[in-house]
Amino acid sequence: MSKTTRYSGDEMWKNNVEKIQNSELFTLTYGSVVSQLCRDFNNNYQEVNQQLDRMGYNIGMRLIEEFLAKTGAQRCQTFKETAEMISKVGFKIFLNIQPTVTNWTQDGKTFSLVLNENPLADFVELPMGPDNRICRDLWYSQVLCGVLRGALQMVQLDVDVWFVKDVLRGDDQTELRLRLNKFLKDEVPAGED
Amino acid sequence: MTLHSFYIFDRHCRCVYSREYTQGSDGGSTNRSNESDTAKLMFGMLYSLKNIASKLGDKEARNNLKSLSTGKFRLHLFETATGLRFVIVSDPAIDNLQSVLWELYSNYYVRNVAQNALSPVDFACDELLANPKFVSETDRFLSSLPVFR
To answer: Which residues of B touch A75 (CB under 8 A)?
Structure first.
């Protein structure tokens, strides 16, 4: 982890974060957003995933500022460092979980975050329809992908984020993947390039 | 000792907030000089100086530009990892305002802009930061500092 961070994620969660008194309210609110989207889009789950992703992106763009303000973190030097920062500090201070960073590709540009628990999906069961389409198509916690994409883009990392497994679908674990497309260049003032 | 003005530039290098403090009763001006040559030239100069600073020495050691002074003024700069730049123009006698700039960002900006769902964060090309609460709270904060007047 970066030495420039003032505290560990653990300490910050304990001392420096306003916690929601009733985390069930948070979980249930998210659940009702997802179910409303399913109704609004007539159970077109691909569209629901996209909407959740977009909502997450807008959240991420704002959340990154709070993250930086709380941690005093500077830009990471390597993508490996970014991965550690996301898991040990980011997820820790906002959701009090610490996903495992794993399954790096050879080129060091793609890795997985395995969520051992998922506060968004407490109490949730996907309803089993006759065709089971919801289990094939809906990524219930897709908002997380959007949040990561939005937050990282603000620190000039262009990434793709997607779910590959979700225990809600009957998989053995909940896993999302991050792929670094490129480091974005800081913009230059007009007339300087 | 005096603080003269306060600017915020976004990651698109645009001046989204400018605040001039005058030592009178009129309270100065807000968002009047965002497109002024002064704002643009000042940004360009800080931008170039920052680049020069980062090219001195090896890459690992962060050599951030914090301030620069002229005969009658000192410019203080703080840049966030998201590319926002906070700039204060003061008297040359005030030598370090990093903690003030950090407070303006981590407290006032984050609470009134980033966490304010109805305020833009990635400003479009004609949008300015004109959130009244941000203006009044930062005014109060800056004017309460011993270095303000």
So the answer is: 81
Q: Assess contact for B87 and B42: CB atoms under 8 A.
A: yes
| pLDDT tens by residue, A88-125 | 999 999 999 999 999 999 999 999 999 999 999 988 98
Q: How far apart are CA B92 and CA B73, in angstroms?
A: 5
What's residue B56's pLDDT? 85
Give dist(CA A99, CA A191) in Å, integer. 44
Phi then psi for residue A35, to 5 deg, are: -70, -30
* Half-sphere exposure for A191 (CA within 13 Å, toward CB): 6
Interface confidence, given as ipTM, is: 0.89
Q: Under 8 Å CB-to-CB from B120, ≥6 apart: which residues?
A: B127
Distance separating alpha carbons of residues A9 and A32, to the nearest angstrom: 29
Q: Measured between alpha carbons, how far is residue A154 from residues A23, A71, A185, B121 in Å? A: 28, 16, 11, 10
In chain A, the domains with their CATH numbers are 9-14+21-183 (3.30.1380.20)
CB pairs under 8 A between A and B: 56
Flag whether residue B82 sits within 8 Å of chain A, measured between CB atoms.
yes
